[in-house]
Every structure is written in structure tokens, then in C-alpha cells.
Design goal:
single chain, alpha+beta, Arc Repressor Mutant, subunit A, 2 domains, four-stranded antiparallel beta sheet, three-stranded antiparallel beta sheet, 7 strands, rod-shaped
Length: 183
Amino acid sequence: MTQGCRPEMISFDGFTLRPETGELWKEGTKLRLQQKPRLILEALLQKPGELVTREELRKILWADGTFVDYESGLNTAVNRLRMALRDSADKPLYIETLPRLGYRFIWPIAVPPVESTPPASVPAPPRKSNRMKLIVAALLLALLALIWGAWGRVELLSDHLHLKAYHQHAAPATAVPVMTHED
């Protein structure tokens, strides 16, 4: 497997590792795998059949300046990985120990080919024409004018009703006789 290329999945003997998510599956069942054992498995699967040194694994698992018992921590992580894979150090199926050097993944792996075709283009959403925008704007203006005109009529009607009510309740006008002088 080429360096820098990260396949969607790597399969071996019924196991499937999805490097993108770090999930390990065995025949459809998701297995629980801690981070350090998973990182070791990924490193081994990147170089199947080749030595991955203990120093390489130390750099993958711990940042520079980390103070920890690397030897014990690495051994523990490899043992947890072997337990998850149901592998044995004495009769290894997957991970071979090269004493004082490192480890090698010995089972053949299958990596589905990465398609080199570009992703299908997604059509752009249809653009609304300027004409449609103008129509919508004109309709909104007409609606506003209608509301404004109706509001003015309501105010006039209200004023008219108030005046009418005022005149109905006002005191009735009394007739005053007017005398005219006739000569």
C-alpha cells in the first residue's frame, strides 16, 4: 500500500478496518478497539509484510517529550490488539514479533481499488431570473399600496362615524322665533 494514500477500508480474514473512522469489524460485528492498538494496526496495515520498528510505533503513539515507559506501553497496546484479533504471539496469524526490532503484519490484506473517476457533478440549483424578482417586487409594492389605501379609508370611515355619533348625542337644536320689522 502506498504511503499517503488512505483507503476507505482494509480487509483481512473476515476483519475490516475503516481507517477514516477507526472502526474495526469482524464479519459484520463492530469490535471495540482502543486508540493505541488501532494506531498500531493502521501502521502495520500500511506496510503489510514489512517490518514496522518499535521506534516508528513509539513516534506514532506518543508525541516527543512524552515521559512514559514506552516499552511497557507498546507491549500492552500490541497485546490488546492481539486480543481483539484473537491472535497469539506464539503462533501468530496476523502480527509477527521480530524480537527487539518491531512487528510485521503477515496475513494477506485486501484493499478495494480507489476509483480515479471524479465525483459526479451535482447540478446547480436553478437560478431565479431577474424577471421573477421584478414580478415579486411589483406584487409586494401593490400589496403595500392596497394596505395603505385601505387604512386611509378605515380612518375616514372612523372619523365619519365619530362625527355622526357626536351629532346624534348633541343637544337638539331649538327653534328661535325671528321677528322681522315690517314698516
